């Protein structure tokens, strides 16, 4: 009965937490972002504090440096990337038309005609209409997103409130951890601490390590694609790198889009066309054999399929806030499920009444 009451209590807490998150999802973004930022910057602040710096001064220094770097990057890249986004959307139908012309050369037309038969003209028209409508819809969506007063308020709140929230959480980090630790049930305190340590290790290995990998890959792809002269190379490279926290999605998406743009731009010069896939192959080599083993680690406990499911599910339910909390919640659920499985394997329900059973 005691175990049942505890289970029901924590299930109730989880249900209330999900309901509050769902009801307040439109206003939680700067606060969730502030907590995530504080989690990222806490190791740096702790290191400065160990060197003898006051916690308040260390927190101010770390937050100030972050805000300065963010402002400089925004001033340098935001106008350029914004212009490339709208230009890419406008030129997307033209790229698709050009790719169709390249594919439908005299050398390829005969076997494509045999493969598709009379459906070829209809397929070409459908693809062209679909891409044109998609580009128009995306352009209208971006314009309405930035012109909407609610979006402007959200962006303003994100920029202004997030550093403030991060500062206070970072300054009181150890006090909050100690306070939460004092609330833990005394009987289960060692177990909860061990699980919390495993969750923190998983998050630290994935979030902090994978963020570094994404930034390095994004910079490499952007610089390399720009150097080969690819149109929108900066936009495609940064996007592919930043999306690389979803396993295989970022690199494959960047490879397909960049190769398509390269074919439309450089055809029939195969040297520059082949250079684009080569860049992504080099990036994947460094990610798989150097960056990820060094920065992320080999066992963070987040399976790629589970991670993608969590991102899609939380993003669908809670929007952008859901994307921010998806990875921490997925890591937490993963650790708890592994703990529950280990408890089940050691229980009589599995062993059939004996602690160890052999055949």
Descriptive terms for the model:
single chain, 359 residues, mainly alpha, 2 domains, 14 helices
What's this model, at a glance?
Helices cover 85% and strands 0% of the residues. The chain is built from 14 helices and no strands.
Description:
The protein folds into two domains: 23-176, no CATH class; 187-300, no CATH class. The protein contains 14 helices and no strands. The chain has helices at 2-23, 29-50, 55-103, 106-116, 119-147, 149-171, 173-183, 189-227, 233-242, 249-266, 270-296, 304-318, 320-345, 348-351. Helix 2 (29-50) crosses helix 13 (320-345) and helix 3 packs across helix 10. Mean pLDDT is 77; it is low at 145-152.
| Poorly predicted runs | 145-152
CA(first)-CA(last) distance: 34 Å
| Helical run tally | 14
State the helicity in percent bands: over 70%
**What is the β-strand count?**
0
The gyration radius over C-alpha positions equals 25 Å
Mean pLDDT: 77
| Fraction in beta strands | under 5%
Sheet with most strands: none
Which descriptor suits the 3D outline? globular
Class per helix and strand makeup? mainly alpha
Following the backbone from N to C, one meets helices and strands in this order, namely: HHHHHHHHHHHHHH
Query: How many domains make up the coordinates?
Result: 2
